[in-house]
Write a structure and sequence with these properties.
Number of helices: 14
Bound molecules: alpha-D-glucopyranose
Strand content: 5-15%
Largest sheet: 8 strands, parallel
Strand order of the largest sheet: 10-9-8-4-3-2-12-11
Radius of gyration: 24 Å
Structural class: alpha/beta
Shape: globular
Helix content: 10-25%
Number of strands: 20
């Protein structure tokens, strides 16, 4: 066994700067709840608001500052609720408006804020506006993007744009007109050039802000405005979520004016309500545009999620991310998983190795300056479910690619709460089967058994989130890299915290790293030296020189 020895070098400590009085979002830990898969309160096999309410205490104990709820609006569920048919209501399968009000009040009572999803790029094809557009009622098609086709009899789509879910981004109606849908045909794109669309969404936001929500996660925030004249994109391959190519339907400059008006709206409410942009822009600098001081507060940093497990790629993405948001004075966000991506235990190699890396990634991520998003089940170390049978799959990506891409359902499997019960405590006893089956061996990873095991994934997260809350060096602020051996990342947060991560294959000996606060795997230490095993991260407390 090779061991490399290194002494974390002394770093001059900058004078700690007093944090601004609030701006809670600058270092918040925000927990994503994929509502249909979190907890089933009414026994129909689908998670709901009652279920969320029953588990708020769990989230408060985990130590998160806020929750983000994915869409719970009425929806025909062609895209897991991102096809909204009514923006001021709750899907009856998921609860009532009173449940939403109670949820917000109860979360606030436990010291947590509540963000909800808003889906402004498209409605459901079952939204009353689209029904009117299908009937070609006066002005109704102006709310969407309707165009005549090209070629003889207009039989060719108006341009070459493709749907993110596979196939063309245009569908033709029996009367010959085409409408645009960057996602499924059941998700027609709205026309944001139309003032009526703008007014409607401002009103929808007021509706929810009046109920007391603390802000919005803005779905496809870079998609609302399309390039003038809808020019061809010149596609060479299927568009993917997380793609990087500049496109005539994403990241157009015009979206910023809309986001500025939303910022004014958010700021007109008391209590620091925030907007979080879901954007996949072509570069970190373009991402920073969405979080300029007069735009949204945060944007998801998917570059971090997409980085390979390795010291080089991670250091590069951390530096680029911080540099980009620093340009505009915004906090960086750190995201490892969400409901659209393969869970990171699996991305990092799966099995014991993926689990070990994901534990180390948790300590790396929670030590970085900025705000951290946790996707439900990440704190349990859940992997992607790769063997869901075809007949249970629901993601439009599976259908639109004729099964070539199995889609995102594997990251949306319901959460196991209790070890021995039939639905692992996801549903009450005697309930219908869960909408996606929970793997039989997930009992061990359920919440209750993990709570009782001090070395569990869940307790690692609980300890780390708690320490992050109480340690003065963690959260907002700056970081400083230290020299370290290849395939390791060492950095300090001041005052007095050292984070060491070994991403390589060999153990690394640390000389006098300080007092161990938390480690992702077992740590051998004799007070003077410690051995950092492969795929392990540790936090150390040090007296600053
Ligand atoms: C966002 C959502 C994703 C959805 C898409 C279309 O990317 O996260 O789940 O399918 O928007 O609304």
């Amino acid at each position: 066994m090779t061991q490399r020895s290194v002494a974390p070098c002394a770093v001059p400590s900058p004078a700690p700067s007093a944090p601004p009085p609030s701006e809670w979002w600058r270092d918040a830990v925000i927990y994503e709840i994929y509502v249909r898969s979190f907890a089933d309160g009414n026994g129909d096999g689908m998670g709901d608001l009652l279920g969320v309410r029953s588990r708020l205490r769990y989230l408060a104990d985990l130590g998160v500052d806020a929750v983000w709820l994915t869409p719970f609006y009425p929806s025909p569920l062609h895209d897991g609720g991102y096809d909204v048919s009514s923006y001021r209501a709750v899907d009856p399968r998921l609860g009532t408006l009173d449940d939403a009000r109670a949820l917000v009040a109860e979360a606030h009572g436990l010291g947590m804020r509540v963000l909800i999803d808003i889906v402004p790029n498209h409605t459901s094809s079952e939204h009353p506006w689209f029904a009117q557009a299908l009937r070609d009622e006066p002005g109704a098609r102006e709310r969407y993007v309707f165009r005549p086709g090209r070629g003889e009899d207009g039989a060719q789509p108006p341009n070459d744009w493709e749907s993110s879910f596979g196939g063309p981004a245009w569908t033709r109606l029996p009367d010959g007109m085409w409408y645009l849908h960057l996602f499924a045909p059941e998700q027609p794109d709205l026309n944001w050039e139309n003032p009526e669309v703008r007014a409607e969404f401002e009103d929808v936001m007021r509706f929810w802000l009046d109920i007391g929500v603390d802000g919005f996660r803005v779905d496809v925030a870079h998609g609302m405005v399309k390039a003038e004249g809808l020019p061809d994109a010149g596609f060479t391959g299927q568009l993917k979520l997380l793609g990087r190519a500049p496109l005539p339907f994403f990241d157009q400059d015009g979206v910023h004016e809309i986001l500025r008006s939303w910022r004014r709206l958010l700021d007109s409410y008391p209590g620091e309500r925030i907007g979080v942009a879901e954007v996949w822009p072509p570069s970190p600098a373009r991402l920073a545009n969405y979080v300029r001081p007069d735009e949204l507060h945060q944007a998801f940093n998917f570059n971090y999620l997409a980085a390979e497990w390795g010291a080089g790629p991670l250091r590069q993405v951390v530096d680029a991310s911080i540099a980009a948001t620093d340009l505009v004075g915004a906090p960086t966000t750190w995201v490892l998983s969400n409901h659209d991506q393969v869970r990171h235990v699996t991305r990092y190699g799966g099995g014991r190795r993926g689990t070990r890396r994901a534990r180390a990634a948790a300590l790396l991520t929670l030590a970085l300056p900025g705000s951290v998003y946790i996707y439900q089940g990440e704190e349990l170390g859940l992997p992607e479910v790769l063997d869901l049978p075809d007949e249970v799959l629901q993601d439009p990506i599976f259908f639109r690619t004729a099964g070539a891409d199995r889609g995102r359902d594997g990251s949306r499997v319901p959460i196991p709460w209790a070890g021995g019960e039939s639905s692992f405590g996801f549903s009450p006893p005697g309930a219908d089967p869960s909408w996606l089956p929970i793997p039989r061996d997930w009992g061990r990873q359920a919440v209750i058994p993990q709570l009782g095991d001090p070395r569990s994934f869940l307790n690692l997260y609980r300890n780390a989130v708690r320490l992050r809350r109480t340690h003065p060096a963690l959260g907002r602020g700056t970081m400083r890299w230290l020299d370290s051996p290849p395939e390791t990342l060492f950095f300090t947060r001041e005052p007095g915290l050292l984070c060491t991560v070994n991403l390589g294959a060999d153990p690394v000996v640390l000389e006098s790293p300080g007092t161990l606060l938390l480690a992702s795997s077992d740590m051998r230490s004799n007070g003077l030296q410690a051995v950092l095993e492969p795929d392990t991260a540790a936090w150390w407390s040090r007296t600053s020189p």
